[in-house]
Amino acid sequence: MADGWREVFERSRFVPPPRQAVRLAVDSLFTQSHGFQLSLSQLTVAQFQQVSEGGQDLTFQLRVTMFDRNHQHFFGKTWKSRPQRMKNNKISFNEVLYFHTSLRLPNMVVVLELVSLSPKPDGSQQALGQGFTVLELFINRPEAQPADGDRRLNLHHGSPRNLLHPLLKDAVDYGSLLKTIDGTRLDCLIKNHPALVSMMHLLPENVLVSGDENIPGLAASPTGDALLRPQLLKMQPFTLNRLTISLQPSLEKFESQLLQLINADCHNTKQPGPEDTLRAVVIQERRLHVGVHNGWCFLEKPQVVVLEFLSSGARSRADSTSKQSTLVKDSSSTLPQTLGLRSSLELRLANHHALAIVFQLEYVFSAPIGPETMLSTTSTSRAAFLQCLRWRAWCPFQEPAEWMGEEIKLVLQGGAEPNPHGVMVYSTEMSAKTQSPVTLSAAGTAQISEAKDTIHFLLSSTLEKKELSPKVSLRTKQEEEKRRSASSPSPGRKYIPPASPPESPQGPGLSLSQLAATSHYPTISHSSKALPWQQSFPSLLHPSPLASAHQLSHVASVGVSNIVHMEMALHLKGDASPSAQDEGDQLEELPFTPVHAPVITVGINESSSCTVSSRSSLAHLYSAGFPDIMDYSGQVAEVLDPTEPVPFDPQREETDLLQGNLLVFQFLAFTRIPTAGAGPGWPENIYFTFQFYRFPPVTSQQLKLLTSKMVQQKAGNPLPCVLVSINKDGTFNSGSPGLQVQFRVDEGFLKPEEKRWFLRYLALHTMHIDIWDSNSLLLIGSTAIDLKYLLRQGKPAVQALHEVEVLTTDYVGEDPLLTSANLGRQSAISPMTVHTIIRGRLHIRTGNIGCPVDPSKSRPTDMMPTPSHIIKPREVTGGFRGGSLSSRNILQLNARNTAQAHRLEMDGDRVPLYKCGIRADIIMPREHNLNEPDSGSRKLNCMAAVHQREGKEDAKAAKVMGRNNEPRLAREVNQITPSEERSKAEGIANMLSQAITTQHLLYASLGSAEYMEFVLKNPFNVPQTVTILSDDPELSVLTNAEEWGYFKAVTKSPTPVEENMFHLEDGAPGPRVYLRPKESIHIPLKYQSFLCDHTMALQGPSFLPTGIGSRVAKKNLSNIVAAKSIKVTFKAEDGKPMAICQVNVEPTPHVVDQTFRLYHPELCFLKKAIRLPPWQDPTVEEPDARTHISVRCSDPNIICQSRMLVPGEPQDVYLKVPGSPSPHIKMFFVMVFTGKWMAAPSQIWQIYVHFLERVDISCVTGQRSCQSLVLRGKQAVRKVKCFSSHPQELEVDPDGVFLLPPTAVQELQLKVQPWEAGSRFFYVNAVDVEQRRIVTAWLLCLNIHRPILSKAFEVCVPVGGGRGSSRKITYTNPYTRSRTFLLRSDHPDLLQFKEDKFQISGGESYTIGLRFAPSQSPGSVEILVYVNNLEEKTEETFCVKVNYS
């Protein structure tokens, strides 16, 4: 049987064209679509290398895709031909393609790629591109008609991805930029095909199809090409009536939950205040879209009708003594239960098995707009927005039409899966199997039955009726369209996507790296009354409290994010273009402040985070046998107390005789702390990632947590687990406990004047450390240690033992029980709360060992002149004295004319760091005789040497070139004379250019501006207007006198500043300056780069060689700006260069102040706002003056902006990061500048964004829910094991190691049984156990609801005494057969059962024994008791309120 609607729909998905191209076509009055036919005959190819290698099994295929070269965008759907073999260097395809388009623009082309297919051992085929070509569809002329006729296209090297290169953007002719494959051409034919007009409603625009494509609604052709002369199937009218929709568990509960989620999000879009009143979002309309779809597109525009309430009658319920059950009974008996359509609809269908009727349930919400765009119930103006809730496609003719005259019942779908309307669908439900209205038995047992959202209707043919059912009136349709266009764009409109794609709710912004390792931090939540920047942060200086924005409170609600997206416009107002004015007036932006979730940050001056270790812990650590930290003379280093302040005297550090420093970090032990959702033995193995100063990032090897069996563990005070390195073979290196990492910082590593910055770094900064689970590769938490205890202050060596807390953040959104009693009023919903969780304690010892410096490599102060920023070209006293124009002569002449800054005029051997980036052959050219005769004899000697090396005919001639060969060599010399003359001219020009070139060596780091002044002299006796050109925008001329003066003050340059020195013109290649005869002026130059390399190591532990207990970090550079050579040319009025300044940029690493780790669903934009406090500049005396804050990002593809919201409020740093597939990690840097001229970043943040596959799960506490995941194999066979972040609440089946073959599909079963209600986030990693690398990662967004309570109890437990309390509850089996039940509790630490499992006969009672643990403090807590069956489905839930008094 042919493919059904679902198969056609999945296969026919395509990419829309660029929105700008659609608008351009509309502006050009190209609104009517035209049909075209593309014939591909044969391809004549050259002899590819792969042809000989592939043999007879090699086949070829053509792949055709449409491309917009102006916007560099592939769109439509890639068509693939049938594989063909090559015969006599020719491939015959004989394929005919059809498409229709209204984008008849010159920039629309067709890209054809030739692909070779070779079989692989596993049976699949390997595709390898052999070349591509571009077919222009429309000639650039006013009528914009297609270029009809035969075409012969040459193939180009590479793949079609070459067209995305920036150099090819807006290119008119690709032939001059792409390399052609000789002897390879494609013969094709393009022409109009008007016959497609009759079937354009069956096929979307810009989709390439062949004549045998399955297009439902199109009659089959006996010739096999149904599109050559299309014949349509006969459409018959049908009537759809008696349509009703039932939503579960009931209509009122469904809508109540929906409104509560939306109002919660709207509540988070404003700053709460005491005067705020209830501001509700209401449902304005309930609509239904009905249309006929053939898998490709809608045959007609879907009809839109308004649904009404229909009462289905009160449902009988048994009596019960429960008050809650009475409320449910009373409220549900008067409220409507279904939505319905009182009229009927007329549809036109053809008898085809792949034609489907598509239903889409859509709600229109209305929200009042207050004076500051806050939601207000007293506002007269309201904003409407739409959201799709459910949909379903049904094929009437897929099976025999047995539905004639019968009521049809369909289950509606929801959630994030493709649908014909292309919109996001609401997916939050009470449960995967929702509960119907509760029926209570006499014993009070709740009976639970399964129910689903359904649609009921009758479909009948109208040919048998005398009068057709009326369609929706035209007036009604126009009104609907008017309201729809006023509220949101129509989803049915083709190829005009919204401004931004509909985004799924974002994952938790887990900013873990800025957490200081202390429990003194407050737990901050959205519901805090204080403003985010008014929270108390323990810091000596101004901290950096950061906040996340653009994040909805109910993260697990897919539909809510598509309902309203209130985001501040980040562009400044500007003049509107004429075309924009024609489209309408510019909307004025209203003041709007999004709610920010405060997060805990670490400033550069964070207080100590250490805690005092117990004596038992210290004794346990010192008995483990960790290596001691010894000074240079072999004595144990002096121990510093990390809880005491450290005096810092810079003079004492600089006058220290031991100028070298060996910094040691010893990771000793880790103390486990019981964590909800994890077992007592978690974690088993860990590893660390951190970065010290500007050394490369460090990823440690795996470390095993060993627990001593000889020492008795106490529950309240667990002893630390000693860390032992794990070898690559899995064995433990028990002979050397702990992990030691060393960094050597001496004169060979530090630059001149850098030591004071290094000491300042140690005194003021903390080092961030991430702790990972090496088995699951999940982040356990983060911590930070103070580096000020590494300051020796003249001592030979120091050490300090730190015990720091490992912290993480957890996001929980409250989700109260939805009952009928809450309908009709707005309940207070708590927004998402951010909790700080202590995962453990890390024991780490830090030390600094002073080392003497080799006197031969030291840099005394008298030999280190102060850096000079003035570049002075030396006077050229000598010139070219004749001889050869070889590169050596030019380099030697250039060496005499090269001037560097004074700080660079030192012995290269004394600057080992500088030498690493400079080629010796450039700095020191080899001497040779300049007076060597440049005659023909030297050329004859050269030719003789060449013939001596290559000669193979005469052995004698190979040894000695006699005089008989001299005439022949002379003739060869005469033949190469013209080319050598040309090289002479080039050499002379090169020599003259080098003679006026001054080189300057510059050491730059990310974001820091380097200032320099070039002394430009006019050598002529006439005035000159000099144009300054720089071949790199990162090196620019300072034309602003105020900025020039600022950098001169910073660098203490004594030269004066001249106002209005430069002349700037629009369109000029660069600034111009006027010079008098023989005048010298200083040209201010600034180099500043915001771009750097973002390469990073793969996630997972490293495998260090066994037996190595320490590690010395190398000086290799990572994540730095690129080394480059930039030329600044000063051209005179005649266009010839007067002087050239060549700046050689040598990169240096930068210091990372803070690190962020964010988790987000894959392939969607991450929008994050980081909130900064209102910083005050200490140099400004005015108290009301604010510091100007600006930001830059190291990745040009990431939008990074800052904006002051309201005077007096803090600034926000906005980030918009494009998504990537899972499990990709994107790393970049954000530079924060507090000065007007951005001379140097005040802070540099390193941000990691982990992209994971998003999975939405709706479940109930205490009850197990199942969800399936699909794991796809990669290129190689892997041994995979899946891990979850909460093993006790989330199980993955299979739970062991399994084999994942290449390109295979493995189904994973998730079993979720949470114990806390609200919106939570779990993580699942599929890990390659051999390579310790992540294969795939999932972000599980759980929407956890509270269960329906059957009974409530209250008990009093005395405080103290060490004894608890025992109680019992009677439970009756409501079934007639014997059943086995399981007892569960959400507080197992407070309540334990006498028996966790019991079996009871039908109708009999059982006494449940409860044992309540004692408490040492008064209070109360509610404990839920779950009675589950063997499948962990909840039968009944009891609530026990325990009062400790």
What attributes characterize this protein structure?
eight-stranded mixed sheet; 19 helices; 1445 residues; mainly beta; 12% helix; single chain
Describe this protein's structure.
There is one protein chain. Helices cover 12% and strands 35% of the residues. By secondary structure, it is mostly beta strands. Strands 26, 27, 28, 29, 30, 31, 32, 33, 34, 35, 36 and 37 form a twelve-stranded mixed beta sheet that branches. The protein starts with a helix and ends with a strand.
Provide a short characterization of the protein structure.
The chain has 1445 residues and is mostly beta strands.
Distance between the termini: 73 Å
Largest sheet: 12 strands, mixed
Q: Give the total of beta strands.
A: 69
What would the principal axes of the Cα set say about the shape?
A: globular
Quaternary status of these chains? single chain
Radius of gyration: 38 Å
